[in-house]
Amino acid sequence: MKKQFGRRNFIGTAIAGSIGLSLPGSINTLYAQNLKQRKRIGIIGLDTSHSTAFTKALNSANPSPALNGYKVVAAYPKGSSDIISSAERIPAYTEEVKKMGVEIVNSIKELLKKTDYILLETNDGRLHLEQALEVIKARKPLFIDKPIAASLKDAIAIFKAAEQYKVPVFSSSSLRFMEGVQEVVKGKVGKVIGADTYSPAHLEKTHPDLFWYGIHGVETLCTIMGTGCKQVVRLHTNDTDVVAGTWEDGRIGTFRGTRSGKSGYGGTVFGENGTTTLGNFGGYDSLLEEIVRFFDTGIPPVSSKETTEICAIMEAADESKNKGGIPVSLDEIMKRAGA
Prior knowledge:
single chain; Rossmann fold; Dihydrodipicolinate Reductase, domain 2; 2 domains; 7-stranded mixed beta sheet
């Protein structure tokens, strides 16, 4: 992948290097010593269906061997208090996970005493920095469901804290690990020349537009194209968003976010050796297996650099919309966020 320059090199060295590259040896030693005793997972946030889906898979009477004996043992249900569509789910999801043997606790502090690994599932990205800091300071390996935060600034703060406390952290949409995407990553069409992806892009007034749901399609695009986006342009109507990014090597990738008609996930990839479509989304199993592998090894499957760039692209897209669709530089977005 093309080397990054300027302020974004901060993301590739100070953050990604410390979490994704320099720690594996010590973390692997720690994990090897304690693997058999450290299988207890805690969940923060029962306001999303991801929490119940992960619990069903992990706590099944006949779990997949790939899940390696991990089990959700406790959950702190608190999620969003002012996003009604999320808050209304908490009582039912709480009862659902209780039936699967999960203890409900009254605080993150209590949760951390009973668990070894954390899934931060709270649907409201505005709460993620505060919640993640509790986990990181307790030195518990942490997966943060999308969005990692509700701003680029908070995302950077999470990764800086993870670096400081030497705690492995990663965040991802489940779309990153869908079969068609991973086939492209592994070279199905050779070098990727460009890509067009799509997903629903429902809006939530408490979050920057694409952070709430469009992140699925944006992350799909970035997984395929790799890092190195330098500017973004966005076209916006009530029903549709089209975001075009230009990469440093001249490649162009686009994301179409839909808010009308039948929704779906997918895209088209243009490569040196051919063109392919991404196929259908196959569920959460692939992501959950990556999370378990991450808990086993302490090695994040997605770098902080890439996750941070995804947030910068989404913030740049908002700024482009607000300025009438003009190109917005990611370096400027990063600079303002403190990168």
